């Protein structure tokens, strides 16, 4: 099995304070066929080795973003990674030129993208008229369209809302479901690739 088949990019600015994402990162770290890449540990100075990152991504079949939602988006270093690594000439390119992964070749085309994120607010806070004013799915649009522009297949996100408030059993179930989905994606059979449509809340 390709040990880097699944590349999990983990971004948490204060992992020692994490209740949810640190558990998920530990789960990914122990999963076969998964490379857990801790961005804040690797690049505390925010200077990203773009060539190294592009080589890692090129080897992967599934790209996973694992992080808490921050101001309706990704943490700063995750965004820096996207800005620096997903250069237009490398990451986009034409759908037909998927062979080498070189410049302009559509290096991400055909790979799958999976967002695994947590929110502090509860699911009910994400609605018209509620605290955050919009359905949660609206905030996924930038992620989904980034994947689309790069020719990546969008997988149903695995989201845990109310990260600080859920009880231990719910958190355990969320982590366990993540592990199952991860193993399904890591398995070579295409039969194991799809999980159900829509956001997977993992509980
Ligand atoms: C700077 C910052 C911004 C945040 N923005 C949001 C937000 O936009 N929406 C939300 O629901 N929670 C937000 N949160 C809460 C985090 O998403 C929450 O603390 C995290 O998902 C918990 O995961 P952890 O236990 O791994 O830290 C924010 C937290 C921080 C520190």
UniProtKB/TrEMBL annotation:
One of its GO terms (molecular function) is electron transfer activity. InterPro entries: Flavodoxin_fold, Flavoprotein-like_sf, KefG/KefF. The keyword DNA damage does not apply. Coiled coil: none annotated. It holds the Pfam family Flavodoxin_2. The keyword Amino-acid biosynthesis does not apply. Gene3D superfamilies: 3.40.50.360. Keywords: Oxidoreductase. Residues 5-180 form the Flavodoxin-like fold domain. This is NAD(P)H dehydrogenase. It comes from Massilia psychrophila. The lineage of its organism: Bacteria, Pseudomonadati, Pseudomonadota, Betaproteobacteria, Burkholderiales.
């Amino acid at each position: 099995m390709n040990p880097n088949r699944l590349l999990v990019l983990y971004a948490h600015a204060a992992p020692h304070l994490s209740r949810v994402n640190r558990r998920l990162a530990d789960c990914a770290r122990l999963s076969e066929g998964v490379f857990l890449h801790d961005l804040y540990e690797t690049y505390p100075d925010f200077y990203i080795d773009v060539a190294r990152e592009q080589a890692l991504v090129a080897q992967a079949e599934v790209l996973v973003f694992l992080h808490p939602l921050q101001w309706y988006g990704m943490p700063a270093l995750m965004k820096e990674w996207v800005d620096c690594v997903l250069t237009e000439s490398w990451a986009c390119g034409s759908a037909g030129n998927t062979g080498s992964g070189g410049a302009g070749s559509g290096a991400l085309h055909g790979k799958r993208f999976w967002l695994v994120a947590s929110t502090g607010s509860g699911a009910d806070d994400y609605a018209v008229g509620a605290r955050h004013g919009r359905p949660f799915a609206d905030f996924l649009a930038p992620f989904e369209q980034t994947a689309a522009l790069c020719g990546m297949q969008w997988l149903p996100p695995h989201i845990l809302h109310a990260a600080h408030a859920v009880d231990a059993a719910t958190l355990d179930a969320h982590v366990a479901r993540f592990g199952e989905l991860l193993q399904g994606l890591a398995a070579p059979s295409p039969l194991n690739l799809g999980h159900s449509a829509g956001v997977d809340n993992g509980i």
